Amino acid sequence: MRNFFIIIVLVISVDLISCSSPVNCSKYFIAYKEPIINSNQKLSLRTDGIYISKNGRAALFLFNNGKVKVYSPFFDTLRAELWVPPQKVIAEMQNAWEYKQKERWGDFFIKGNEIIIQRFNRNNEEVCKRSVFEEKGRILNDSTIEIYSEYSYWWKDKLPSLSAPCVLNFYKTNTKPDSTIAWFVNKSWYKNELNEKRK
Length: 199
Prior knowledge:
Layout: H1 2-19, E1 23-24, E2 49-53, E3 58-62, E4 67-73, H2 86-92, H3 97-100, E5 105-111, E6 114-122, E7 128-141, E8 144-152, E9 166-172, H4 188-193
Parallel strand pairs: 1-7
Antiparallel strand pairs: 2-3, 2-9, 3-4, 4-5, 5-6, 6-7, 7-8, 8-9
């Protein structure tokens, strides 16, 4: 009976800890250690607005300092009835919860015509409060990105691959989120290993 009681206490303890986990799993977050681009070329993508998918379910901001704010993380194809026109995304973005928060930030780097985005997702019900997601895409021109791969370092093979590439088009905006509020920018591990070209 005593062993049964101990097991019950352990199960409840683990469940409670996972509901308010203080653990940030940043081990695989390495984009900030890389230069934004691997040459003396200028950044080939526009950064004075937002990139939005045709269906409005994926949206992100890129910044000259290598930061990325994933405003809406749905890069996979969703049913047409869930689509949101890009114009509506822009009209409502400043009043949305995701816009002003310190969550869903990350960094990106470019190799040739490929862009690699690493960003943090937040889930208070997991052991890992913040875990790393990685998207890979092709730069089609200075205003178009095609995301072809998405990977979760926490779930590993549990995250389904994209059923089709997600094309994001650029829309100029007068305002953008503040990249200095990302939750990790003042962490010692980030500041100590931040690539010099990102400072």
